[in-house]
# Entry
Amino acid sequence: MAVEPLIFELSKPGRRGVRFPQSDVPAVEPPAEMQRESLMWPEVSEIDVIRHFTRMSQKNHAIDIAMYPLGSCTMKYNPKINEAVSRLPGFANLHPYQPAETVQGALELMYELQEMLAEIAGFHQVTLQPAAGAHGELTGCLIIRAYHEERGDTARTKMLIPDSAHGTNPATAVMAGFDIVSIPSDDRGNADIEALKGLLGPDIAGLMITNPNTLGLWDEHIQEIIKLIHECGGLVYNDGANFNAILGIARPGDLGVDVMHYNLHKTFSTPHGGGGPGSGPVGVREGLEAYLPAPRVEKDGDTYIWADPAKSIGRLHSFNGNFGMFVRAYTYIRMHGAEGLRMISEDAVLAANYLMARLQDRFDVQYPRTCMHEFVVNGTRQKKQGVKTLDIAKRLLDFGVHPPTTYFPLIVPEALMIEPTETESKESLDYFVEAMLQIADEAETNPEIITSAPHNTEYKRLDEVGANRNPNQVWTPAAD
Ligand SMILES: Cc1ncc(COP(=O)(O)O)c(C=O)c1O
# Structure
């Protein structure tokens, strides 16, 4: 007899893992039209639930299991103290409708986080509202638009964006009503400054630049670029997704950047969690604070209050943003202090350069100059041996390592974008190198083992297109 594994359909009528306490308020019968026959919830015991989620967690890779060198996304370890602090009842049990005088501690934490983020990146004021990097970009673009509109400078419709940018940059600029003009990269991986000069004019609203960029490189002309944009009347938006490379070393505000988002779920170690909830605060230079989203926490004497900036672009998030993320990022910053933050970036940059140095004989690094916190391999050499970057990524799973980002940035053929982060030990970096070197050998001698990978994982190659086209994300009870 074939034994069916216990996988998903665990529900049995009447089985339960939770008992609710007796109600201490009078029962009210909801109107008939609001009542349902069944909630269609799975009925399971506590141990079923625990086993189900434990099994699920073992089917996938996680930063808590092994290295997760996902370039551009900074999948760094989330220290457990962040979780402990965010679960303190005084934070976890708050309700967003509570009056400000009853949540002074929470507002103080938000105020201090705003101040610390402003200080770390050299900005005047910060909003914590946006829920992700992309949301921060939209916020920044709306601020840039409001700034020009207020000055009656409405002919500024174009946003310049380097071709190495993350797709969210053009997407959010378009959502904010701008036309996109792409800047090519030069042969050292910078935004091509000569091409940029040819694009400047009275129709330029601004520039969205990622620095360090998504090739893991510091733009060697950043100060000149910022000067040029300002001289032509535009504003500079810095995509701060790569801020992990420069904490305590360089402050975008000091370089002349006008607006920037921070990714708390990258640089400041809050969880990424399957698309959210993240947090993408936005900092602005002096003179732009009046446009920030409303409300913002401010301090009136010893009291923390909600205040609406004078020319606010409005509200971008329900309630006050993802508060649990603020607690975690605050804890992380306080735990490290100024010196610790600088050490994070120094270690992240060192780790990336170490990997690049050890791999560059066997893999072609697209721009072989000192990198920041990540670097990009061009997989064309391996492709000629019959092994695509996708295959290398799948083979890495056999070594228990999450693959780096693949096929991004789009300007690098067969791109493999490697970001080890500061939290990996030398042993774990060396393990990754050995796995990659073995894959380089296999590409030469036994490419089939790579093209048919993964071999050791519970699931083999998935039908990713099918999963996209026919997603099955909602549990419905099996028919009896
Ligand atoms: C360079 C860059 N910009 C923007 C984003 C968007 O950030 P988020 O995923 O938080 O929306 C990312 C992340 O994926 C990124 O790598």
Remarks:
- The domain at 339-458 is CATH 3.90.1150.10 (Aspartate Aminotransferase, domain 1).
